[in-house]
Design goal:
Blueprint: E1 2-4, H1 7-13, E2 31-33, E3 39-41, E4 60-66, E5 70-75, E6 80-86, E7 92-99, H2 103-119
Parallel strand pairs: 1-7
Antiparallel strand pairs: 2-3, 4-5, 5-6, 6-7
C-alpha cells in the first residue's frame, strides 16, 4: 500500500471515473486494509441494509468508481481515504491511502471538490 502525503497528489491519483453506480452490497463483510493500520470490514452505505440509516458506525462510503474495479472508500469513523481494488472473487487490495482529517467534512465535499478540480485540468 502506498501512502499519499498531499490532497493534490491523491486527487491526481484518483482522477477519472464516476460516482459509484454499482451495487457493492454483495461484498458486505469482506475486509480491507486501511492506512490507519486496521482492517476495516466493508458494509456498503448505499446498499439495501444501510441506505435508510442516517448514520451507521460500520458504514463504508464508496466515493468514486474508477476503471478496472477500483474504488475510493471512506469508513464512517476513519480519517483515511483508500483506493481499493476488488477482484471478481471478492478480494480487496488497498493500493493507496491518504489521511484527510475530518471524515464527515470530506465525505460531504469529496464529489464537489473532485468535479471542480476536473474542470480546471
Amino acid at each position: 500500500m502506498k501512502y499519499i502525503e498531499t490532497q493534490e497528489e491523491f486527487f491526481r491519483a484518483t482522477m477519472g471515473g464516476r460516482p459509484n453506480q454499482k451495487d457493492l452490497s454483495n461484498f458486505d463483510g469482506h475486509s480491507y486494509d486501511c492506512g490507519c493500520g486496521k482492517k476495516h470490514t466493508f458494509y456498503f452505505k448505499d446498499g439495501p441494509y444501510l441506505k435508510e440509516e442516517r448514520y451507521s458506525p460500520i458504514a463504508t462510503y464508496v466515493l468514486r468508481e474508477l476503471k478496472f474495479s477500483n474504488y475510493v472508500f471512506n469508513m464512517t469513523h476513519c480519517d483515511y481515504h483508500n483506493l481499493v481494488s476488488i477482484s471478481i472473487f471478492g478480494y480487496f487490495k488497498t493500493k493507496l491511502t491518504f489521511k484527510h482529517g475530518d471524515p464527515w467534512a470530506t465525505i460531504k465535499n469529496y464529489e464537489r471538490e473532485f468535479d471542480l478540480r476536473k474542470k480546471f485540468q
